[in-house]
Specification:
By secondary structure, the chain is mainly beta. Helices cover about 5% and strands about 40% of the residues. A 5-stranded mixed sheet has the order 1-22-21-20-19, with no helix packed on it. A 4-stranded antiparallel sheet has the order 2-25-24-23, with no helix packed on it. A 4-stranded antiparallel sheet has the order 3-4-5-6, with no helix packed on it. Strand 24 and strand 25 form a beta hairpin. The N terminus is likely disordered.
Length: about 375
Amino acid sequence: MRNIAIISLFAIAFLSGSCNAQVKPNDIAIKDDVKNYKLEIVASDIAIPWGIAWLPDGTMLVTEKSGVLYHIKNGSKTEIKNVPTVYTRGQGGLLDIVLHPDYAKNGWIYITYSSDEGGGTGGNTKLIRAKLLDGSLTQIESLYKATPNTTKGQHFGSRIVFDNDGYLYFSIGERGEEFVNPQDLKRDGGKIYRLNDDGSIPKDNPFVGQAGVKEAIYTYGNRNAQGIAKNPVTGAIWAHEHGPKGGDEINIIKKGANYGWPVVTFGVNYDGSQITAETEKKGIEKPIYYWVPSIAPSGMAFVTGDKYPDWKGHLLVGSLKFQYLELVKLKGNTVIGRQKIATDIGRLREVRQGPDGFIYMGVEGKGIVKIIPN
């Protein structure tokens, strides 16, 4: 009888946990993987490949979170010299890398990383630009450094993208200070920023001229955006961001908009307690899609070209939690379908479409993986 009672208690506990599992009402069900492709590792043994960029000769630059910048040619990795010292703690490290849209003429490479530069202990996200000469970074220029430094290990962001007008956008997470940073325009963190390519502040940024405000801010109330991409059709900048437990979001970035964190959210604290009862509020931008439960999104790319006919015009998002690539099918700005790709590939940190039209994934513990259609 005692054994039966114990089993019954375990069953009740399991059912109770299942009943408390997060469920999104009327969600778009995700479809299973369709294996109409093969995977090829093009660069192996990279612990946490964070950002990918291509040089004009087709070779690849890959950031590794611990602070190594690789130049990859024909599968062979060479370490780039003179990479700035990285403050590696928690989610911080060497983060994104993007070439200037006119790189062939000016040679500028843009990099974000966590830096201990400035006063106080710890670090925060920094944006630089540099040039590459003889396997080394040269002419390094500091464009933006978030303050204050903190020893907290979470939510550094950070992704970089250029729009059609040559403005640079980059993200910085709220650094674990959700009730301090995201809604305060006088503080860094929990924001997406917009700069000219030389690091100066555009005169038409939404908060220019306001006393004490960080004038580089373009949007606020963003928890931790680790995916940013330009919509190739509309030119709009899209971003996804990590929610807490539930409530990862896809947003279209609008000038001066507030995306709500932590005033509104579809998620809860990691212990299950409530952050807020609000899921929408006047003056706060609604996501075009949100995930419950969280997938822990990282990396984002729109599919163009004809190599993947069924994916063309849609969005790819990596999942750290569920370890697959998610195809988010779109009709205009509306999500109409979801499908798994590369199921069980591993913690998927980055996804980019290369200049050759193929999709490349940065997978933790594996390296750079190419998707080749059958």
